[in-house]
Design a protein that fits this description.
By secondary structure, the protein is of the alpha/beta class. The chain has 2 domains: about 100 residues, Rossmann fold, CATH 3.40.50; about 100 residues, 3-Layer(aba) Sandwich (Rossmann fold), CATH 3.40.50. Helix content is about 50%, strand content about 20%. It is built from 12 helices and 8 strands. The protein has a 4-stranded parallel β-sheet, with helices on both faces. Strands 6-5-7-8 form a 4-stranded parallel β-sheet, sandwiched between helices. Helix 1 links the parallel strand 1 and strand 2. Helix 6 crosses helix 7.
């Protein structure tokens, strides 16, 4: 019997492939469906009209379903934040897992969180989700599209961590009283290990819990 294929939706070919590789580590087979060719076009798509975004995602989901996919792994925080996947799951009958599902479970466990995202679309969507789950949460956030561009360009993790001054940023979050730093972009696990060596602040990556949910 052929392995079940899971549709991987993300912003660009790079983070879509990261999503495929994330599933592969768990023995799952992902089929890539990037929504844009690069991060800037991804951001432009995400600030377009809700009708345009929903129609584009619906078309991709129908294509994926036609190729035998019954589950969807949305490996993109800003895409998850800018498109409402709940009605699309009902329309298509597909199981859809996004990072926002994990943040809803995460929020009640903390009092103070730092958050970095690719763009303001992702930052705002994650903020809404966290606050809905824990209205008492204190949150500090930052947008970091230049870091995403460095990742897309293949800059070594240690170099981009240094050039973008991520240890200093993590230290600012830590000294501001944050209990952990949420890597609110699915590109960011790329530098997680390199940054973890330079900060004592716990780094939260939702990908592992997303895999657990997609396997349920």
């Amino acid at each position: 019997m052929a392995a079940e294929q899971i549709a991987v939706l993300a912003g660009t070919p790079v983070d879509t492939q990261m999503g495929v590789e994330c599933l592969a580590k768990a023995g799952l087979t992902g089929l890539a469906f990037p929504m844009a060719s690069d991060p800037r076009r991804q951001t432009a798509f995400q600030i377009s009209s809700q009708a345009k975004k929903t129609a584009a995602v619906r078309a991709v989901l129908e294509t994926a379903k036609g190729q035998g996919c019954e589950k969807v792994f949305v490996y993109c925080n800003s895409l998850s934040s800018s498109v409402n996947f709940t009605p699309l799951a009902s329309e298509t009958g597909m199981t859809i897992v996004t990072p926002l599902d994990i943040y809803r479970e995460l929020a009640p466990k903390y009092r103070r969180l730092g958050l970095i995202a690719a763009n303001a679309q992702g930052l705002a969507g994650i903020e809404r989700t966290l606050f809905a789950a824990n209205p008492a949460l204190d949150l500090l956030g930052a947008c970091m599209l230049p870091v995403v561009l460095s990742i897309e360009a293949g800059e070594p993790p240690e170099e981009l961590v240094e050039r973008h001054r991520l240890p200093e940023l993590a230290e600012w979050f830590r000294t501001s009283g944050m209990e952990a730093l949420v890597l609110g972009c699915t590109h960011f696990p790329y530098f997680k290990e390199a940054l973890a060596k330079r900060t004592s602040l716990p780094l939260i990556d939702p990908a592992e819990e997303m895999v657990r949910k997609i396997m349920e």
